[in-house]
Design a protein that fits this description.
about 290 residues, five-stranded mixed β-sheet, two-stranded parallel sheet
Length: about 290
């Protein structure tokens, strides 16, 4: 439907190679579409990625689709003008296209009829950490972390709620006291965070926020494409500084500013969030 709307000459589906079961499902469904005559043979090209986190950034994904190393492009030009193989390109997460399909089949009320905390619609929250039943939950878009923990069966036995990651490692950490914020687009920005991928991680009184933040920066250090110095070197230096028993907060603050201001893409720009939010909300640990 998306390809039809923009009169695309070709469609690409990009899938990480760590999910062979999903790749098999996609290959089977594409073959079924071709057999039914709904799309010409070869119109949908299923491209397997090597599992780089950076390829969640649209231009890095396009580079990978083209057979190059996944590295973000400088802008302009934007991918809507110059995208895959130099052609104008529409890029969307599959979840977005899923909802377009649901709306077309079931009507706009599938989203517009659900409202909580002033927010309309539904969102898939991927919940992990210290909850009874980790998993993916389809909940109202205005759900708070308290609602999400309740949907996950509550806190794991023997654990008390301490902090949470609202939407992937780039979103940083918020304390349990901030449990009344709807986890939706634009609601977390005033608090220095964002919903991102809606990958929620719940921490308990048996975890240290500083350890979680260090783990996130190690992840960014490993997943940085290495193209720009602020991200490549900044993540490495941050990891070293965060291993000290007492953090050098002024130096870490300067490092965060440099990464936010000078990194090419969102990975380096958002990587400081776990550091800044740990210093703000969990200063007693550092």
């Amino acid at each position: 439907m998306a390809a039809w709307a923009v009169e695309a000459e070709k469609a690409f589906i990009y899938m990480r190679d760590e999910y062979p079961a999903v790749l098999k499902i996609l290959a089977d469904e594409i073959a079924a579409l071709e057999a039914a005559g709904l799309v010409p043979a070869g119109y949908i090209d299923l491209r397997r990625g090597a599992g780089a986190y950076i390829c969640g950034e649209e231009s890095a994904m396009i580079e990978s689709i083209e057979g190059k190393r996944g590295m973000p492009r400088h802008r302009p030009p934007f991918v809507a003008q110059v995208g895959v193989f130099g052609r104008p390109t529409l890029v969307h997460n599959v979840e977005t296209l899923h909802w377009v399909c649901r709306i077309a089949r079931e009507g706009p009320q599938i989203l517009s009829s659900v409202e909580i905390n002033g927010r309309t619609g539904l969102r898939s929250y991927s919940v992990s950490g210290r909850v009874q039943n980790p998993g993916v939950y389809l909940l109202p878009a205005g759900s708070t972390i308290a609602d999400i923990i309740a949907a996950s069966g509550g806190m794991a036995q023997g654990h008390a709620f301490k902090a949470y990651q609202p939407g992937g490692p780039s979103s940083g950490l918020l304390p349990a006291s901030m449990n009344d914020i709807p986890l939706d687009f634009d609601t977390l920005q005033p608090h220095g965070s964002f919903i991102g991928s809606a990958a929620v991680v719940v921490l308990s009184d048996q975890d240290r926020a500083r350890d979680a933040a260090l783990n996130m920066l190690r992840f960014f250090e490993d997943e940085s494409c290495g193209q720009c110095t602020p991200c490549r070197v900044g993540c490495e230096k941050a990891v070293k500084l965060m291993q000290s028993e007492s953090w050098d907060q002024p130096l870490l603050g300067e490092l965060c500013t440099a990464m936010q201001d000078a990194s090419i893409c969102g990975l380096g720009q958002a990587a400081p969030n776990p550091i800044l939010m740990t210093m703000k909300h969990f200063s007693d640990e550092i």
